[in-house]
Amino acid sequence: MDSPHLPLTGLRAFEAAGRHLNFTRAALELRITQAALSHRIRGLEARLGCVLFRRLPRGVALTDEGAALFPAIHDAFGRIVGALAPFEGGAPRAVLTVSAVATFATGWLLPRLQAFNVAHPGVDLRLSTHNNRIDQAAEGLDFAVRFGDGHWSGLDAVRVCAAPLSPVCAPALVRRIRRRRDLLDLPLLRSYRPDEWSRWCDAARLPAPPLRGPMFDSSLALAAAAAAGAGVALLPVGMFAQDLADGRLVRVSRVEVDVGAYWLTRLRSREETAAMAAFRAWTVAAASAPGAAA
Questions:
Q1: Whether 100 and 242 share a structural domain
Q2: 175 burial type by CB count under 10 A (0-12 exposed, 13-18 middle, 19+ buried)
Q3: CATH number, position 272
Q4: How far is residue 210 from each of residues 111, 187, 229, 269, 276, measured CA to CA in Å?
Q5: Among 283, 293, 289, 284, residue whose Cα is nearest residue 123
Q6: Are residues 247 and 169 part of one domain?
Q7: Backbone torsions φ then ψ of 265, nearest 5 degrees
Q8: Which residues are CB-contacts of 284 (< 8 A; sequence separation ≥ 6)?
């Protein structure tokens, strides 16, 4: 049996009305009159041989038939809008997929993102975050920003910036720290990298204490725990400049330890596109600008 030839304008009117459950708002979105919207929906109902909406004193409600049809039509129009998005402005936009360690994304990249958009309006950047454990091939990423030593099998890595760690805590705990060694009498918050505190203690010429308590999988979680007064955290202070400026966190020692850096990584098997080259060059330039590490 042949499927009915359904009018696209009727389906669009149905989708908008089903989303708003109000003919007036749907008509305003489509920039047509309410009478025109009602006419298109009646035409669609006539083609389908069923009623799609129940008229209420205020707004409308989907009938059982309308509720069954709406998800598929809404999804279809959403896919169309998504497919057309790269062509906004009359020219195709190059999609660039980047995943970054959440700490770097919030502390370094997001404050600079508008500058990239202005410099490269033809690039449609899709940004996600991770906790330094990611499979670039499986996720089809153009780039991933990772923390570490720059050596990952199958990846090309470009160093973006250093990330020295230094102890921070909540303002309420600062009064308990009069000497550097007083840090050791407070709870020391741990990351999943077990040697960070021992390496910092070596740099500070302090004995490394046994570590107990919860372990955190990201610097963002460590920072939140420290700000809540749970203890002292070793953080890449350059990524938490706003928290330090706002007084949520206080740096309690100038001693730093370098356990890694942030790197922009790409699969060696992934050919670099023009959009990728633009993002790589912009990132390196932004990181080398005066004051970029602060």
A1: no
A2: exposed
A3: 3.40.190.10
A4: 37, 11, 20, 44, 45
A5: 283
A6: yes
A7: -115, 145
A8: 158, 160, 264
Burial 71-94 (b: 16+ CB within 10 A, else e): eebeeebeeeeeeeeeeeeeeebb
Q: What would the pLDDT profile of 65-115 be if each residue is shown by its tens digit?
A: 999 999 999 999 888 877 776 666 555 678 899 999 999 999 999 999 999
Is residue 3 domain-resident?
no
pTM surpassing 0.70? Answer: no
Residues across the chain: 294
- Most confident by average pLDDT, 70-84, 87-101, 206-220, 254-268: 254-268
Q: Is residue 203 part of a domain?
A: yes
The whole-angstrom separation of Cα 246 and Cα 254 is: 19
Which residue range(s) make up the domain with 12? 8-87
Number of structural domains (the chain) is 3
170 is a domain residue: yes
